[in-house]
Amino acid sequence: MKFNIKVNQQHHSIETDSDMPVLWVLRDLLKMTGTKFGCGKGLCGACTVLFNGQAVRSCSLPISTVGSSEIVTIEKVDKIAEYQKHAIPIKQAWRDFNVPQCGYCQSGQIMSAVAFVKNTPNVNKQQIKSSMTGNICRCGTYPRIEKALAYVIDSKDANDAN
């Protein structure tokens, strides 16, 4: 079947089976390899992308369900105006707090963090742990993830107060 999808603000026309997961469309057909394969069941979060602004597991999202919705991947999340003010500070905090160890899960972690900060009004540090529980880190960098996100939230609060 033929599908017209919008990924990172660009339109793509692809031919594939209707049940092909978005993860494989991104990686195999569009050659966007920032989104990772982890478990294939939507449990680990390595494949997280933004789908209409929400963090979703692309390994369990069939291409047939995308329609006219927009998908945003790690490759462009910091270049798209709607997400820039969240993605840029999050990516910088990830570097500043040395969050990645092996780095495999980090694109999914960052995409979940962007959705969390963007979509949660009056976000607070107590919500961080519960918001990120769907993303598994094999290296156990959870304390660094929490510190980095807390720093972003504190910075956001300081900027909002000014």
UniProtKB/TrEMBL annotation:
It comes from Catenovulum sediminis. PROSITE patterns: 2FE2S_FER_1, 2FE2S_FER_2. Residues 1-77 form the 2Fe-2S ferredoxin-type domain. This is (2Fe-2S)-binding protein. It holds the Pfam family Fer2_2. Keywords: 2Fe-2S, Iron, Iron-sulfur, Metal-binding, Oxidoreductase, Ubiquinone. It comes from the Bacteria. InterPro entries: 2Fe-2S-bd (IPR002888), 2Fe-2S-bd_dom_sf (IPR036884), 2Fe-2S_ferredoxin-like_sf (IPR036010), 2Fe-2S_ferredoxin-type (IPR001041), 2Fe2S_fd_BS (IPR006058), Beta-grasp_dom_sf (IPR012675), Diverse_Oxidoreductases (IPR051452).
